[in-house]
Each structure stands twice: as structure tokens, then as C-alpha cells.
Amino acid sequence: QQQVKQSPQSLIVQKGGISIINCAYENTAFDYFPWYQQFPGKGPALLIAIRPDVSEKKEGRFTISFNKSAKQFSLHIMDSQPGDSATYFCAASISGLWLTFGKGTLLTVNP
Amino acid sequence: DTGVSQNPRHKITKRGQNVTFRCDPISEHNRLYWYRQTLGQGPEFLTYFQNEAQLEKSRLLSDRFSAERPKGSFSTLEIQRTEQGDSAMYLCASRLADGYGYTFGSGTRLTVV
After folding, report:
1. In Å, how far are A84, A89, B12 from B110, measured between CA atoms?
2. Stretches in chain B below the pLDDT threshold 50
3. pLDDT in tens, B18-37
4. Inter-chain contact B45–A99, Cβ cutoff 8 Å?
5. Strand, coil or helix: what is B85?
6. Which end of chain A has fewer CB atoms at under 10 Å, N or C?
7. A96 or A105, higher pLDDT
8. Do A100 and B45 touch (CB under 8 A)?
9. CA angle A23, A24, A26 (to 5 degrees)
10. How many CB pairs under 8 A join A and B?
11. Helix (H) or strand (E) holding B91
12. B43 φ/ψ angles, rounded to the nearest 5 degrees
């Protein structure tokens, strides 16, 4: 049972464009929703996270939009840059126990 | 102390051999997690510790796997009688028990031949 479903599997965006990655979850007990960025050969690094009491959180070029009723959340990367090319994972956890990850989205930003 | 350290970075072993990985978390982090990541997939939770106590084990953690955190500092993950299906990246993460910010190490890539 996949508790966090992520789409698309891969995404190609032109430099300066907006990258949008979506996730849907099933377990309503999830109360923490982070996004991670992973480069080849490296561990995941936290980008931005949100709790379900807010609908949007912005940090620099990265924004999380959260829809509690639809059980969906998304990552928007504004002004995408070639250096943003990486694999992005959404995740969720219950009361800070352990993270359940989506399958990842490979983002390629063309110069 | 700049992050979570994992050793070795790469391990190639023959099927049937035992392997052990080490994780040194951020020193003030009392929670330590092990995840497994296969190619093209997200990390999957294996087990976690609060200080030296192992509080949860995933069904993915078969009897061939054992993890320890003897003094509540570093942790080891041992795989006995390795199988080709054990080939993966093994990731360690740590955080404060009363926080949410997980910090991941760079992982140990295991290849079983």
C-alpha cells in the first residue's frame, strides 16, 4: 500500500519556468509534510516543510501548497534553474515518528 | 560536527557474506533512523532509535538485519547472509526527539554480487 503518491515521475522545465510536483496521501493522521531534494550519490536534503494547519508556505523560490480536504500537497519551484536539476521527494509523517516517502520526481531544468 | 556521517560510502560483497555499516549522527540528536533506498525509489523506513532504545522496526527489516545504538551515539546496521536483493543505498538520518528536522547522511551503497 503506497501511502504517499507522487507525480509526475519526471519533469523537464526550461530555465526560468515553474516546476510543479504533486503528492497525494491517504492517511489522515499524517501531520508533517516535507519536501526533500536529492542529488546523485547524496542523501536527501530538506527543502521546505509544512504542517496541516496552514495552506501555503513559501521559502525563497520554493512554495508548498497544502489542501487538507483533498489530501494533496504540491511543491512549486519558481524561476527554475539548471542547478535545481535533481530528484525531489515528498514525504509525510505522523507526530514526527518516521517519514513515508513518495517515489520521487526527476527534475531536469534545461538552460 | 557538521552533519550525519556514514561509513563506508560503498561496499561490494559476495552473496552470503555479512556486512556492517556505521552511522554517526549529529551529536545532540537523540533520534536516529535507518532507511533503505533502491534505484528509482524513495527511501523506505527500516528502524529508529531514541537514544539507545530501538523503538520501531519495519516489516522490511528481516531477521537477517540487526541494528544497534549501544551508547545512544553512533549506530550500526548489520546484514547477515547477504542476498542480491539487499543491494541498495542504506541511509541514516538523525533529529531531535522534539523537533521535525531530519538530517540525512550521504548513505552507504551496498552491492551484493
Report:
1. 27, 22, 6
2. none
3. 999 999 999 989 999 999 99
4. yes
5. helix
6. N
7. A105
8. yes
9. 150
10. 55
11. strand B88-95
12. -60, 145
